[in-house]
Amino acid sequence: MKTFHQFLTICEAIYDRDQPSDVELKVGKIGKERKKTAPERRRTKAIGGGKTAPAKEYKPRKDIGQQRQASTRVQQPQKERGSAKLSPKEAQRKAYLERKAREKGAKTKSADELLAKKKKQTTDPNYKPRKASGLTTAERKALYKKGERTLRDITLAATGKKKESELKHPITSKEVTRRNKKT
Predict the structure, then answer these.
(1) Structural contact between residues 95 and 101, judged by C-beta atoms closer than 8 angstroms
(2) Model pTM score
């Protein structure tokens, strides 16, 4: 049999006062912190020069630590309870129409089929997502325009013309917008 003093020392060893309890940790905050660290974040952004980096952190929500009312989360009834019930005449007509549909051979779904979950769409196992170029929008546009200019110069040299406007079909996006403005 342990004395009261021995019992207290055992209790103090188990319950460390320096460590906050789970209850103390949750006070003032509902739920846990769900913010991901930089390596965990999947979204990336192009930083230029063919490199990518994790996208910036989201701001914390304004309603952290507040209990949300059920009225804001759950669809509220718009009619009085039981208003969806059919009148006897409507129920009779519905049964008649279902009977006629069965006689014609129309397939009606059983309760199991109605309650069954839809099969989740699966992705093709051979699908490979496009690799990010790592170029910023400005760099991508510059590269695109450089290619357009090169193509335009080759076409002009091959046809013996001096300007792109002399060609029947425009090559650069700049010429396309110029011709669209004209019409």
Answers:
(1) no
(2) 0.38
